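TL;DR need structure tokens for one chain.
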Amino acid sequence: MTLQFLADGLVMGAMTGLGAIGVTLTYSILRFANFTHGDLISWGAYLTLTLSLLIGAALPSAGAPIGPFSFGWPILAAGLAAMLLTGLLALALDFLLFARLRRRGTAIIMVIASFGASLALRSLLEFLYTPAPTYFSRELQIAIPLGAGIRVTPDQLCTLALTAALVAAMHLLLTRSHIGRAMRAVSENPALARVVGINVAAVIRTTWLIGGALACAAGVMLGLTVQIRPYMGFDLLLPLFAAAILGGIGSVPGAVAGGLIVGLAESAGVQFIGANYRAAIAFLLLLLVLLLKPTGLFGVRP
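>> reply
TL;DR here they are.
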């Protein structure tokens, strides 16, 4: 029996955990389940692809792959720019839709609105780029054998390293910076945070920017390891929520741990049960967590 599913599960779990950070931050601070997060992942991947093509056309010599990786400097530069653009897209959604509903709506209205906005974003993406899948690069990679039947590509190792770096940066931001402490205060009690002088509106804007940027990063990593298509983020949405709830709403380490657990469980399910039941595994994990430990692994009971 090969243990390749462990490597595949870790890679997929890392990307799921990275995307789940945005879900858990949005839910803990804004108090609603944001269905547009999956489509922000897709938009981030496509924005990166578009910008990388523009950079590659302007600087043809810069498009060569970096070392053993399948991508060159245009992908990295485009990815950084697309993280900002995706964060601004999330901020624009809040300004045009969610902020208005937040002032006079309820949580269920916000959820329904996010579902509608998700459909609109996905349809627009499909209209602009067509449903056909595409790729960041078609360069072939030689997988590196690690023993016990496990093989990984350099791109997969890169995604794991980048995920670890982004998670560490998020942890430092939330624990060592003023805005991070303000975000934690708002997630605990928005009314009290406002009373003590915290700019709640600025915290909400920062949350959307960070959530969009991390969604873009997850989309780029997903596009590097598989393919880019309009439904890539939507297909990841259920595992994202499962990871966020499993780890505990509001916990960044919990979101990452939940993502790794979901990724490994799905990969093991494909190995031992079949690929047709992959989506059901995330759903079952979500149900088990809600039934057995609703606060999640790192969550606290309100």
